[in-house]
Amino acid sequence: MIKAKKSLGQNFLVDKNILEKITNCVNIENKVIFEVGPGTGNLTSQIIKKKPKKFVVIEKDNVLAKNLENTFKEKLTVINDDILNIDEISLFKEKVIVFGNLPYNISTEILSKWILNSNNNFWFECLILMFQKEVADRIIAKFNTSNYGRLSIMCNWKLDIKKICDIKPESFSPKPKIDSSLLVFYPKKNYIKIKHPNNLEIITRIFFNQRRKMLKKPFNQLFNGDQRIINKLEINLNLRPQNLTLETYYKLACEYEKFNC
Fold it and tell me: Which letter, b or e, does each residue of 166-186 get, where b requires 16 or more Cβ atoms within 10 Å of its Cβ?
């Protein structure tokens, strides 16, 4: 019997109703599928039933990777590696549908990597991902709410996000101590272009470093109080970071690039 490893954040999804709901999110027949962290292969089995054209999975755990190879054989390709080491753009020749019950300890790191590395050409058709509910709530949070912050701004920059459902601990083995949420991400056709995406990370980090403070201090730190930018973006420096819209942050990142040329 395969036991979950706490060090890898392993909680295996076993609820058949949830497994079916995940694979029914989008049409995957004759599509290229990439599954991250397939574990014992419960979701993998459901995906195979939908007849994908090509199926690649990546599993960091050596024992689980070997088990997947032995169980599914020629039905899929197993990569035994850490997802953070992989260059997905060079791995796939066509756009893929990604499934992932992401390890809670690195879920935001994985998602940030995919967003920042996509440039203007997305390597994926959509992402169907499971997160700790608390993280999912931050991803989909609207401005002027307490959950709104860096993660909301980064994720909504180039992606449209839809919440499918919440998932109780009883759907997993072993049971986690928290609820999970299933989200689907679709690339946006139109979004504000930021030449160096890391500048958006810099902007949001400095603004939300003291999220309860007014905007004046972080703005001055980034732009030396440049009144032209304040006027152009119509920013009230007496507001707090959570009061600025998504679009304002993307425009601030563009202005930051110009300011530091």
Answer: ebeeebbbeebeeebbbbbbb
